[in-house]
């Protein structure tokens, strides 16, 4: 469908060697985009790129490892993307980290800083690196993968939730700044998705049963279901959407779950 066609677009997706990031990369490639697979480990990135190229043709995906905690590595990621694929049309900031579980009173300064550096500052860095060419071209789409954690409180992942709430505000501010240049900035807020990040929840039968109970759709989400929202926001279908946080959680937040 033309509304969701990404033919000719180049997209960088961080944290795309597995989980939600990989699903987004695969969906973008299926929609016609060329995608940059990026995570910390080059071999893992190459495996995903090879799989996508096997399905969609050579050079539809390239592998460029980069740690989101390393500003120079992110700059190299952007520069190499331009060198090999010519441009950056879409940026998906998906990679994030959470090194601490427990009450806020127990978190160390180092852990607190790591959460905000990786989940907020790194997004700011990458956006600052790609936005100028999008603004000059008068077209671009930036997507931050936030979380429903940014909409609720928690006695276990409080700092992580605060970082995800900050991502919502980053999106709102940048949407105002970039809107006059037709560069759209949005967030996606997944609920519990069947990824390694949430493995402890969906591998525990009792925990999964409780998740099903508090979710109106009665099940855990799949990575591909987040990818669908990303394709919408990156394509013509989402051309009049900016500054928004699209919740993809099976209805959990409206029922007051988690």
Molecular shape: globular
CATH superfamily: NAD(P)-binding Rossmann-like Domain
Give the structural class: alpha/beta
CATH-defined fold name: Rossmann fold
Q: Could you characterize what this model shows?
A:
This is SDR family oxidoreductase. It holds the Pfam family adh_short_C2. InterPro entries: NAD(P)-bd_dom_sf, Sc_DH/Rdtase_CS, SDR_fam. Belongs to the short-chain dehydrogenases/reductases (SDR) family. This protein has 258 residues and is α/β, with parallel strands linked by helices. It has a single domain, classed as 3-Layer(aba) Sandwich (Rossmann fold). It is built from 9 helices and 7 strands; from the N terminus they run E-H-E-H-E-H-E-H-E-H-E-H-H-H-E-H. The chain has helices at 19-30, 42-56, 71-85, 109-137, 158-178, 199-202, 205-214, 223-234, 252-255, and strands at residues 10-14, 34-38, 61-63, 90-93, 140-145, 183-190, 245-248. Strands 3-2-1-4-5-6-7 form a 7-stranded parallel beta sheet, with helices on both faces. The chain is globular, with a radius of gyration of 18 Å. 46% of the residues are buried. The mean pLDDT is 94.
Core attributes:
NAD(P)-bd_dom_sf, Sc_DH/Rdtase_CS, SDR_fam, SDR family oxidoreductase, seven-stranded parallel beta sheet
TL;DR of this structure?
Belongs to the short-chain dehydrogenases/reductases (SDR) family. By secondary structure, the protein is α/β, with parallel strands linked by helices. Helices cover about 45% and strands about 15% of the residues.
Write the layout of secondary structure elements.
Blueprint: E1 10-14, H1 19-30, E2 34-38, H2 42-56, E3 61-63, H3 71-85, E4 90-93, H4 109-137, E5 140-145, H5 158-178, E6 183-190, H6 199-202, H7 205-214, H8 223-234, E7 245-248, H9 252-255
Parallel strand pairs: 1-2, 1-4, 2-3, 4-5, 5-6, 6-7
């Amino acid at each position: 469908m033309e509304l969701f066609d990404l033919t000719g677009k180049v997209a960088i997706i961080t944290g795309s060697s597995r989980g939600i990031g990989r699903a987004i990369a695969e969906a973008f490639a299926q929609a016609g985009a060329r995608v940059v697979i990026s995570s910390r480990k080059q071999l893992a990135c190459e495996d995903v790129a090879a799989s996508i190229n096997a399905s969609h043709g050579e050079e539809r995906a390239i592998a460029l490892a980069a740690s989101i905690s390393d500003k120079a590595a992110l700059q190299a990621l952007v520069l190499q993307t331009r060198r090999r694929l010519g441009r950056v049309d879409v940026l998906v900031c998906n990679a994030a980290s959470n090194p601490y579980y427990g009450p806020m009173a127990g978190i160390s300064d180092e852990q607190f800083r790591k959460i905000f550096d990786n989940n907020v500052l790194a997004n700011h860095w990458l956006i600052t690196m790609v936005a100028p060419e999008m603004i000059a071209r008068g077209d671009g789409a930036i997507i931050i993968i936030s979380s429903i954690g940014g909409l609720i409180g928690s006695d276990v992942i409080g700092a992580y939730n605060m970082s995800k709430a900050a991502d919502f505000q980053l999106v709102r501010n940048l949407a105002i700044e970039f809107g006059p240049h037709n560069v759209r900035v949005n967030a996606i807020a997944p609920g519990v998705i069947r990824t390694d990040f949430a493995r402890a929840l969906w591998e525990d039968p009792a925990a999964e049963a409780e998740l099903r109970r508090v979710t109106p759709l009665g099940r855990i989400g799949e990575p591909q279901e987040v990818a669908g929202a990303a394709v919408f926001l990156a394509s013509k279908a989402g051309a009049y959407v900016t500054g928004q946080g699209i919740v993809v959680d099976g209805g959990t937040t409206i029922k007051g779950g988690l």
